[in-house]
Amino acid sequence: MARILLITRVMKKIRGFFVKNSKLLSLIFIMGFLLMGTISVLAADRSPRGLVLPEPGTIALISTGILGCIVRFARRKFREFKRIFDLVVGGIGVVMAVPVMTITAIVIKIVSPGPAFFTQKRVGINGKIFDIYKLRTMRLDAEKETGPMWAQENDSRLIKFGKIIRKMHLDELPQFVNVLQGNMSIVGPRPERPVFVDKLSKDIKDYRKRLNVKPGITGLAQVWHKYDETLEDVRKKIKYDLLYIRKMCLTVDMRILFRTIIASAQGRGAR
After folding, report:
1. 216-233: b (≥16 Cβ within 10 Å) or e
2. Contact between 235 and 220 (Cβ < 8 Å)
3. What is the mean pLDDT of residues 2-10?
4. C-alpha–C-alpha distance, residues 229 and 59, integer Å
5. How confident is the model at residue 30 (pLDDT cuts 50, 70, 90)?
6. Distance from C-alpha of 46 to C-alpha of 111, rounded to nearest angstrom
7. pTM of the model as a whole
């Protein structure tokens, strides 16, 4: 009888510990999953199909009972933790980007009259319009005669050094502020201008489904596909965007960030 009472007390204490420290334990679980994701990033195949197939780390976790529950928990809660991830990476990004943005802004002011920074209307989650921040790489009257249009190869509207700034994606650095404001995420479909969203929604099936998540500074379509030149390019990018929305998790986000660093260093994906 005494043993039964002792076991009962011990079980109550264990239960109380888990209830009292549930948030801490959840955080530990997520950090463990993040570590597994890092290992998966380093060992993962670089082909696009690698993002479709289950990761080796994920398969190993699912096959081990309790750890499988952790994976499922992490995936269910990912969208909540994604905001924390965005704040951490966005905060670090702003701090690291300030010196680079300052130097770039000075160069822009020297070679071109007008402001170094500018805002542009973009379409965010659920169709919400917001102002995106960018460093200016084109003349102030760039769309005076043509109206809204995509950047072209060897675009004549670019200012001096504008092509280099875009190739290195330095013009996108101010968007860390958009992430901290909550209008954007670090990873997600790229936000498009309202005029293009209205047109492409009519021409491409399921185009508006990409608005079900926050737009990102970088995304699956940006690291695996070239810059948009034709309607067919956009159709291909939509497939990548919808694939990301279906598979979004920490592991996928980390892979995309890893690929973004490589693409930025190589000057790919920009005009």
Report:
1. bbbbbbbbbbebbeeeee
2. no
3. 54
4. 38
5. low
6. 39
7. 0.68
